[in-house]
Input
Amino acid sequence: MRPPLEQQVVDHLESLGADFEAIDIDPTFADTAAFCERYGFTLDESANAILIASKRPEGMYCLCLALATTRLDVNHRVRALLGAKKLSFASAEVTATVTGMEIGGVTPFGLEDPPPIYIDAAVLNLNRAIVGGGTRAMKVRVDPEVFGRIEGVEVVEGLAG
Output
């Protein structure tokens, strides 16, 4: 039996009819580079979900998903999408409060009250994408076409580079 948060992610994937595989991992290796090295995957097939928080005005959030080999264009592209003047990567505490997930396990799947979700279009070019599984003890390997079926998701060209 999976912990509730992981089950919530699996249930959401199943409700979307996703082609996916849940991968149980040692939470010590949840950070992307450590995960890839330990379990024999590559950064080229991994995507990171990162919560972005506004500083001016405060209290706005979005979740961005980009290839692990790229960097989010927070200061231009994400700022324009969110409509805030100043943004930063959310702290671990804020990420946990907004998503219910720990850094290393954040995913666009299974969010109860999701902020806007922006997915870099390059993620959709992967054959399979490895993303967080809701906790640091699970990753999900998924056909990326499912990202476009998550309610409220916006696929964005040039979100990261």
About this structure: The chain has a mean pLDDT of 96. The first strand starts at residue 20 and ends at 24. The domain at 4-156 is CATH 3.90.960.10 (YbaK protein). The chain has four helices and eight strands.
